[in-house]
Amino acid sequence: MSGHSKWSTIKRKKAAQDAKRGKIFTKLIKEITVAARQGGGDIDGNPRLRLAVDNAKSANMPMDNIERAIKKATGEVEGANYLELTYEGYGPGGVAVLVESLTDNKNRTVAEIRHSFSKHGGSLGETGSVAWMFDRKGIITLPLQGKTEDDIMELVLEAGAEDIQTEKEFFEITTAIEDFENVRKALIGAKLDIENASLQWIAKNTVEVSGETSEKLIKMIDALEDNDDVQNVYSNAEFIDVE
């Protein structure tokens, strides 16, 4: 199992826990709000909004919540104005870390993120310090649904996917950004249940971490992800002793 896949398994478990706590709704609502503010409230004419709404539906978010977030973004009702900010730094073991946030208070967010880094043996860096170590990719996960990798592979490769990996409970499909929507539509057209589809930062090369370093890094990432202003956290760690 690759380092990215192992981290994907960890992230999938975290997402399930967040969903149970209702915490994931906060992040989804922010993404819907920003997508609608930037590209308009028409789902059919705004790919980012359509994706955000689809992910919200997959997380069983009520339509009332979705529609309210869109109305806040388009000014029909009063709502917060979120800034999209990305922070870069290093975690334990010299691991590169990228943090994507949506915030209505930049000063609060940077102070809290810096604290999470330093408390767990990391350090917040300058813009551009680690971003060059990552590529932007489309990542789609779907439960196995009784399918084999061969069943899925031909479909997604014809639609433009770069890679497919099979884990214990799910498939993970990687695409270039320009092919992401075509692959997603192909899966929907085949009536396959998409668990999550998003654009993510994927490390070009990984750094092996284990033992105490691994534990510290996971605690740091947990602390960052528990911040309501943080949407996503990425690292180039390859966890060699984490199942």
* Count of discrete alpha- or pi-helical segments spanning 4 or more residues: 8
The CATH homologous superfamily of the largest domain is named YebC, transcriptional regulation domain
Radius of gyration: 18 Å
Tell me the CATH topology of the largest domain: Alpha-Beta Plaits
Structural class: alpha+beta
Q: What is the distance, rounded to the nearest whole angstrom, between the alpha carbons of the first and last residues?
A: 10 Å
Shape: globular
Number of distinct beta strands: 10
- Share of helical residues: 40-55%
Structural notes for this entry:
This protein has 243 residues and is an alpha+beta fold. The chain has three domains: 3-74, Integrase, N-terminal zinc-binding domain (Arc Repressor Mutant, subunit A, Orthogonal Bundle); 83-132 and 204-239, Alpha-Beta Plaits, CATH 3.30.70.980; 134-203, YebC, transcriptional regulation domain (Alpha-Beta Plaits, 2-Layer Sandwich), CATH 3.30.70.980. 45% of the residues lie in helices and 25% in strands. A four-stranded antiparallel β-sheet has the order 3-1-2-9. Strand 1 (83-90) and strand 2 (96-103) form a beta hairpin. Helix 2 (23-39) packs antiparallel against helix 3 (47-58), helix 2 crosses helix 4 and helix 5 packs antiparallel against helix 8 (211-225). The longest helix has 19 residues, at 3-21. It is globular, with a radius of gyration of 18 Å. 33% of the residues are buried.
